[in-house]
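Lecture 7, part B: from sequences to assemblies.

Below are the input chains for today's worked example.
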Amino acid sequence: MSLIAFWGAVELGLVYAFVALGVYLAFRVLDFPDLTVDGSFPLGAAVTAVLIVAGVNPWLAALVAMLAGATAGVVTAMLNVRFRILNLLASILTMIALFSVNLRVMGKPNVALINADTMISPFFGLGLRDYLVRPLFVGVLAVIALILVWRFLESDAGLAMRATGANARMARAQGVNTDRQIYLGMALSNALVALGGALFAQTNGFADVTSGIGTIVVGLAAVIIGETLFGARTLLFALIGCVIGSILYRIAIQLALSIDGIGLQASDLNFVTAVLVTVALVLPRLRKGRA
Amino acid sequence: MRALILALAASAALILPAKAADVSVAVTAIVEHPALDAVRDGVKDALAAAGYKEGENLKFTYQSAQGNPATAAQIARQFAGDGPDVIVPISTPSAQAVVSATHDIPVVFTAVSDPLGAQLIKNMDKPGGNVTGLSDMSPVAEHVALIKEILPSAKTIGFLYNSGEANSVSLLAVLKVEAEKAGLKIVESAATKSADVQGAARALVGRADAIYVPTDNTIISALEGAVTVAGEAKLPLFTADTDSVARGSLAALGFNYYDVGKQTGDVVVRVLKGENVGDIPVKVAVGTDLVVNKQAAAAMGVALPEAVLKRATKIIE
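Predicted structure of the full complex, as structure tokens:
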């Protein structure tokens, strides 16, 4: 694996760390199996790309992308809370609808940003190599997001959200408005995922409507890799685990791409990735079992 | 790093006996798919014809993103780090990922309908920078003319496509213009995954006098589903690429994807021979094959005009 490939994997892992943090909020904190992310990731990419092409400041474009993602989360929450549709199905409905919404937003399936100024453009040419600038930039943002999510979950408002996910009945008995917590949590989660999409579009030069496929799988894999390797002893550990898990997942793909010569074909990529991730998940457990 | 490798290579050349220069070409596609695989094979064969043979003096790498643009971005970084002599990305998202990943390695993209819209290049005649390539924009006007020739009474063409594919949407825009010139109406039917193709074809029954399938990865992957509907409903089905005629489409005119790959490979050879990438104009793939399928014509209730049969370069019985 070359340096460029390694740092490329780290960069993509950091972009998807936003997805992992969002998925953590939905699945682990709120206990809400949310597939909206397959739609809100490309939604974030679409909104940011269209706005940048229209001449809007890229930071503002990313902010609007987050708002769009939050709106998608609110729609899922509304289908679930207000109309009593099963949470999983509610999120699937939003996800399906978002495919069409994303095509409407962009007006076509693919919007290019290769020649546009993005959030990261000012940082090129400051002396660091391009392949280091991108992961550093996204990494700083990811750390800020991690700290904000952590501070939020440790606050009173965050405690109410965690109580809602842990035991909704008891939370209600303590005076927590659990419906409002679901709205807030889904909005936050999908805003993070959409920001991930916005960063993907800005660092890779395009928004494509197909880029949402499998987002939930990547997010969940990152969360679980993180939990397995770091444990979920404290909240902070779990959140750091999300970020590291996301990076490790990308490195697994990069390794799968680099392996050749043992009869593997290009089409085996997904299988090899799955095997590598499985090994990462099983190895620590085996060691524990022996000790 | 590159300088170091070059220095090592130079010193090796001094020590070792002279040997044909080894070159490396890295190819990536967004997904495995009959047309895109044919492009890859065409590139490989064109290289072989020019004397670059895999395993001898050519290192040929191929990666597929398995349909995922994030993986395409990773493959692009992988290739940028490996530093091959030429990178050949197949399809729009793969090309965008590669072009944003490297500014120095020569890139020859292919199977991109609208390279200007995809911002791969700024100028078709003189692309500049490290990028050139081949557009697979179909000769849509000629396709419309062929449909009119075979079906003079047709009024409406059904466009079967995946609304999520950039190539197909740019083709739709061109088709609308050409159809209006020819006095035809277009109705659209979209399938967003291969499992939906048969249903989307069925949605055109009764609304269109013919189905036109563009060079769409999703539809071509599941073409048999659409062909079945066309046979059941006696609805003539045309494709843009000539490969698909053998799979049951009535007729097609122009290039097939293997040709696109070969023409791409020729450009790659020019780059390997030392031509400056940015000086090579971006061309549109060419081909003049007319392929017709008599069996499909019978199934779809179409009598092929004598003139078409005479002009056909290939007739599938």
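Note for the exam: The first helix of chain A runs from residue 3 to 29. Keep this in mind when comparing with the next example.
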